[in-house]
């Protein structure tokens, strides 16, 4: 399905980004993202092929959603190498994103993630960062809220990540605190628990 | 309405952060007392709905409704009463027309819409050293308002068939819309701004209003000098100076501004001596930690470091600001910054009011600089002081014997 995106892009706080977004279906079963992260989906998802960074998760390798990315967004940042940014700069943003270094601690990676997803002025608040396994490796779990700049909606989010062989892999689920976060978290948690990093 | 003074050419864009501080005073190079003999118009009434001005008001009313519900508006009654009090002292008989919204956005900006909606951004509050400096900026904005410059601009825009752009800029002024999101993140928006003559007029009126309200006019010049210092700081640090920087725009020339401002300050302003340093500090104190966090997250480290040094000069034992100086170095992470960060954190811990996170950040940098014992000791202290911090679990995992 193709979506004309001039209007959608405006709603998402983007400038001059009127290229088509391609949305595809992720079927139930095993799926591999970025040749490095394998997941087992118990339900079908919509998957965005992105031609430009979206403010919900700028530069993510893929974004999955059930009801649309402003309502629920599961973003995958796969294989971020030393010296790269986590995600990408939004068009027109003058902020210089920090660079990932392979020896970063999880709380330093929280800063990277926060910088990526607040480029258009949303507010990020860390609720918890704790050790957790991800993709079969020791990693971390981040719980956070975001107050979205465009409409003041309070979002809740959870991200799981790990640095494996010098590369960062991170999956982040973000949705409005009212209704949508709770609705899909029970599906997202086992999906992320099924992750395997190559 | 936004008020930055960028030229109308698309090459010079509206400033995301540094607007409304065009403190040039009149076209003459020497200020005269006559220049400031300003008579404000009688209080405004709502224009007819069918008029162009009425349409603009309706448009801004709509934006104000959005702003009222924005989570980015700081609603603290004491801070609002304080800022509103300053705005009212400046506006005199027009005070009842003004509604102040303090918006948590870490850029230097204040503006006033023709319907009386005044926005004051937190990045401005953090940057002003005293009440008189804030009064200088709000006085300038009030000058635009009293002279109804926005309406002139509207008519000009209509004449140039750029009404949609004009209204887009107006939307950009309010904190709710996506345009605002772009504005505050530094995304460029071109076009509509006040003209040079309007800026000069607003500057002249602003100084008159602040002096009549008892504020020391010399502080208006300090606002300008401080901004210039921050820009120089960015340049010295090798950072790209924002293309939205008001200092690069084609405004009244800098030399003219400096000269006229300095002359204005030397005029006889009976009773205009208040700077309000202590009151300002007290009013901002409950919010300063959050504003400083926002500031360092902008990643404009050259500017921030100049700001922090200025704050430390005014208050040399301020451990909170000193901590954020360390944060600027740590987050910038250039060669040599780790050492500077460690020094800053250690200095902060010897001062008053360093937050517990100083130990956390010190630990993170020491960990990287091959001082594991020092890091462990700093982390332990952090966990003692902030056992329930959001990152306590992960910090605990860095300690020896934690298994990670």
Quick overview:
The complex is a heterodimer of chains A (198) and B (404). By secondary structure, chain A is of the alpha+beta class.
What descriptors fit this protein?
heterodimer, A: about 200 residues, alpha+beta, Protein Transport Mog1p, Chain A, nine-stranded antiparallel beta sheet, 3 helices, 12 strands, globular, B: about 400 residues, mainly alpha, Serine Threonine Protein Phosphatase 5, Tetratricopeptide repeat, 2 domains, four-stranded mixed beta sheet, about 55% helix, elongated, disordered N terminus
Beta-strand residue fraction of chain B = under 5%
- Total count of strands of chain B: 4
**Element string of chain B (H = helix, E = strand):** HEHEEEHHHHHHHHHHHHHHH
Strand order of the largest sheet of chain B: 1-2-4-3
For this structure, the quaternary state is: heterodimer
Helix count of chain B, per DSSP? 17
Structural commentary:
The complex is a heterodimer of chains A (198) and B (404). Chain A is of the alpha+beta class. Chain A has three helices and twelve strands. Chain A has helices spanning 6-11, 106-117, 180-193; strands at 2-3, 21-26, 29-33, 37-41, 45-49, 62-65, 73-80, 123-134, 137-147, 154-164, 167-176, 196-197. Chain A has a nine-stranded antiparallel β-sheet, with helices on both faces. Chain A has a three-stranded antiparallel β-sheet with strand order 3-4-12. With 404 residues, chain B is mainly alpha-helical. Chain B is elongated and about 75 Å long. Chain B has a four-stranded mixed β-sheet with strand order 1-2-4-3, sandwiched between helices. Chain B folds into two domains: 33-266, no CATH class; 300-396, Tetratricopeptide repeat domain (Serine Threonine Protein Phosphatase 5, Tetratricopeptide repeat, Alpha Horseshoe). In chain B, strand 3 (110-112) and strand 4 form a beta hairpin. In chain B, 56% of the residues lie in helices and 4% in strands. In chain B, helix 4 packs across helix 8. Chains A and B meet through helix 2, strand 8 and strand 9 of A and helix 7, helix 15 and helix 17 of B.
């Amino acid at each position: 399905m193709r979506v004309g995106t001039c209007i959608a892009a405006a709603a998402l706080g983007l400038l001059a980004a009127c290229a088509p977004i391609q949305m595809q279906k992720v079927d139930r079963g095993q799926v591999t993202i970025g040749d490095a992260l394998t997941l087992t989906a118990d339900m079908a998802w919509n998957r965005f092929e992105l031609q430009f960074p979206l403010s919900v998760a700028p530069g993510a390798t893929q974004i999955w959603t059930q009801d649309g990315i402003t309502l629920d967004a599961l973003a995958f940042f796969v294989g971020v190498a030393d010296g790269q940014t986590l995600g990408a700069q939004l068009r027109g943003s003058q902020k210089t994103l920090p660079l990932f270094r392979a020896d970063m601690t999880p709380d330093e990676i929280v800063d990277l993630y926060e910088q990526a997803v607040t480029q258009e002025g949303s507010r990020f608040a860390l609720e918890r960062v704790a050790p957790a396994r991800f993709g079969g490796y020791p990693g971390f779990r981040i719980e956070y809220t975001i107050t979205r700049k465009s409409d003041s909606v309070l979002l809740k989010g959870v991200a799981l990540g790990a640095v494996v062989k010098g590369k960062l892999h991170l999956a982040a689920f973000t949705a409005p605190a009212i209704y949508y976060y709770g609705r899909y978290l029970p599906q997202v948690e086992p999906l992320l628990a099924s992750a395997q990093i190559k | 309405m936004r008020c930055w003074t960028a030229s109308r050419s698309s090459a010079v864009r509206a400033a995301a952060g540094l607007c409304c501080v065009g403190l040039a005073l009149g076209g003459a190079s020497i200020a005269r007392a006559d220049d400031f003999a300003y008579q404000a118009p009688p209080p405004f009434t709502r224009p007819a709905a069918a008029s162009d001005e009425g349409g603009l008001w309706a448009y801004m009313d709509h934006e104000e409704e959005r702003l009222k519900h924005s989570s980015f508006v700081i609603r603290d009654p004491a801070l609002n009463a304080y800022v509103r009090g300053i705005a009212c002292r400046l506006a005199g008989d027009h005070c009842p027309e003004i509604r102040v919204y303090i918006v948590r956005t870490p850029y230097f900006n204040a503006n006033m819409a023709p319907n009386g909606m005044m926005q004051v951004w937190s990045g401005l509050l953090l940057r002003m050293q005293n009440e008189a400096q804030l009064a200088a900026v709000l006085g300038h904005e009030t000058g635009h308002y009293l002279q109804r410059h926005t309406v002139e601009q509207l008519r000009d825009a209509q004449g140039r068939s750029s009404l949609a752009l004009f209204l887009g800029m107006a939307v950009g002024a309010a904190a709710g819309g996506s345009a605002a999101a772009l504005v505050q993140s530094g995304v460029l928006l071109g076009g509509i701004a006040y003209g040079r003559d309007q800026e000069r007029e607003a500057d002249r009126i602003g100084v008159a209003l602040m002096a009549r309200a008892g504020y020391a006019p010399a502080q208006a010049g300090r606002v300008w000098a401080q901004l210039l210092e921050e820009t120089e700081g960015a340049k010295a640090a090798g950072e790209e100076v924002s293309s939205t920087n008001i200092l690069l725009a084609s405004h009244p020339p800098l030399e003219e501004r400096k000269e006229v401002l300095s002359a204005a300050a030397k005029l006889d302003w009976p009773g205009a001596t208040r700077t309000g340093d202590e009151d300002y500090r007290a009013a901002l104190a409950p919010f300063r930690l959050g504003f400083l966090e926002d500031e360092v997250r902008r990643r404009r480290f050259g500017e921030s470091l100049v700001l922090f040094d200025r704050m430390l000069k005014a208050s040399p034992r301020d451990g909170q600001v000193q901590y954020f100086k360390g944060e600027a170095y740590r987050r910038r992470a250039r060669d040599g910054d780790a050492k500077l960060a460690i020094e800053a954190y250690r200095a902060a811990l010897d001062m008053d009011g360093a937050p517990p996170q100083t130990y956390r950040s010190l630990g993170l940098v020491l960990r990287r600089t091959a001082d594991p014992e020092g890091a462990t000791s700093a982390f332990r202290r952090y966990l003692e002081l902030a056992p329930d911090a959001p990152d306590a679990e992960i910090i605990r995992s860095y300690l020896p014997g934690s298994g990670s």
